[in-house]
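Bug #77: duplicate submission created two jobs. Keeping one. Sequence:
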Amino acid sequence: MVPENILTVEKAEPCVWGVSSGKGGVGKTFISTSIALTLSKLGHNVVLVDFDLTGANSHTALGVDPSHMSLRHYFESQKSLNEIVLNTPYPHLQYVQGFWDSWSPVQLSNADIDRFWNELKKINADYIVIDLGTGSYQHHLDLFKRCDEKFLITNPEPTSIEKTYRFIESFICSTLKDNSTADAFGKLMYVLRDHRQRILPQPFSFKKYLLNNDGFVFDHFEQLSKNPIRMIVNSVRSPQQAELGHSMRSVCYKYYDLSLEYCCAIDFDNAVWQALRNREPVLIAQPFTPLSGQFLSLCKHMIDPGELRAVV
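Kept job's structure:
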């Protein structure tokens, strides 16, 4: 019997950070694993989940051998999600291996995603970092929308910038679909196609369109601003490239009516690919470099923004 003066404290749900990108090859997995490693080095219990359905490789970035246990065992109902959480050589850090056997594609339903999310929030961890797949596939967007923090990775290359904008458009449309009638959303799709073909009489504004048409939830963009997408520009080689995030933020606000937060720029460093070739994360191989400091500042700011302001 529990004494009356002892309060039972329930374990708080883990905070879920989702990391995605509009294009492959921009360093999404490097960012995901580095964030997870940094959080674990700060003493938090972290689980890194590789949810890249097109070919997972977070285990390679962590420098561990591929396991026979993966998300396939969970989605094929062979194991529970807790049973496929694997240990790493690094204190406080575990991971869930993704679908690295891509020769047998997996078909996921909305019910599968709902079940996965509900079990994910029950994992015993302080933080869960999800390395989502590249591009605006519906399952990626569904999980990305649910995350407590959303990180979108790009780099200064024109192809990456273009696909980042396409991802943001898809994200907006996906959230609108969840907050509109079928007829209203279908009409919006026609208008957006006209906008893409440059045949509208004036520039398109999501916010103005939603205010002037029925069938939508009008506080949609206000809700998105409360939990904004946070952009990280990776592989920056100059101060000019570091300014890219500010420019993209302005574009999103002007043309998409979306408050996008420019989180930080991560410098290009040859040590990244050299460490990967040696099967050791660069933050472990070189823990006191400026690159490690950038991830430390990022994670500390996300955990407690007031702490860094107090130092400054």
